[in-house]
Specification:
Blueprint: H1 8-28, H2 30-43, H3 45-54, H4 62-69, H5 81-86, H6 96-108, H7 112-116, E1 127-129, E2 132-134, H8 141-152, H9 159-165, H10 175-184, E3 188-192, E4 204-209, E5 215-224, E6 227-232, E7 236-240, H11 242-248, E8 250-259
Antiparallel strand pairs: 1-2, 3-8, 4-5, 4-8, 5-6, 6-7
Length: about 270
């Protein structure tokens, strides 16, 4: 399966057009050039946040996940083309074509993972166990978790469908694409970055770490006989006490809570 964000193409084209416009304006209207350079410091903030995240220089707070989940927000990286075009005639660090290539590289950053590291020939088994979607690859715990949530709320989904919609790659699935996919399927959702497990409303996707520190997504489905009902894409349906949960998983505090349209996410 090869599924990457199709917005990469118009975004790169827009960046090229902005580069060309900046290049021309720098020669014909130098006074306007300086004002546009100042404005670019603000216009390129989204692209800068994208870059800092992928360089692991910023964390993943709830507001950032919400921001990245906005439909089409990744196209804001096209704005890198303008300042590089305005500076194309300057020669402090690179020539005109080098600046164009660098600007397009920065534009490509938020689209890179599923293009460079696609799931490729992954075979999706569509395996379920007691209402829990089981992952077919080591990189699709996120799509399986969301498929479990959607199905539990009466919106049938499969691992393959969610993986395609959320642009999964060999490195996993970015949480904002899961959030965007959930909302497009009709769910209400919110993200919490530092929640206590006792305060998380089911159903919810939980960010946990396994032995060795590997990141993983599981689903909190509810409670039954004093135990938490969990859906682990690696293990199926589980009933665990809090002590058993703490032994099996290291909960990071990250949670994505869901409800049907018209319902309210409690707490």
């Amino acid at each position: 399966m090869v599924a990457f964000n199709p917005l990469v193409f118009p975004t790169l084209l827009a960046a090229g057009a902005l580069y060309a416009a900046g290049y021309r304006l720098a020669e014909e209207r130098p006074a306007l050039r300086n004002r546009l350079l100042a404005a670019s410091a603000v216009l390129c903030l989204p692209g800068l946040f994208f870059l800092l995240y992928y360089l692991h220089l910023v964390r993943e707070p709830a507001w950032y996940v919400e921001f990245r989940s906005l439909p089409g927000v990744e196209t804001a990286s096209a704005l890198w083309g303008l300042p590089f075009g305005l500076l194309a005639r300057e020669k402090p660090f690179a020539g005109t074509w080098q600046k164009l290539r660098l600007s397009l590289l920065l534009v490509f950053v938020p689209f890179a993972k599923p293009v460079l590291l696609p799931l490729g020939g992954a075979v999706f088994n569509d395996a379920w166990e007691d209402g829990v979607c089981l992952q077919s690859t080591m990189a699709t715990c996120g799509p399986c978790s969301l498929a479990t949530v959607l199905t539990s709320l009466g919106l049938p989904a499969t691992e393959r469908d969610v993986a395609r919609a959320a642009f999964s790659a060999m490195t996993g699935t970015e949480s904002w694409y899961l959030l965007r996919t959930a909302r497009r399927r009709g769910l209400k959702a919110r993200v919490r970055a530092s929640a206590a497990l006792s305060d998380v409303s089911a159903p919810a996707i939980l960010g946990v770490r396994l032995g060795g520190g590997a990141g993983h997504f599981i689903v909190l489905l509810g409670a039954e006989r004093g135990r938490r009902v969990l859906g682990d894409p690696l293990a199926g349906r589980l009933l665990l006490t809090d002590a058993e949960f703490a032994k099996a998983y290291d909960f990071t505090g990250w949670a994505m809570e869901f409800s049907r349209p018209g319902d309210t996410i409690s707490r």
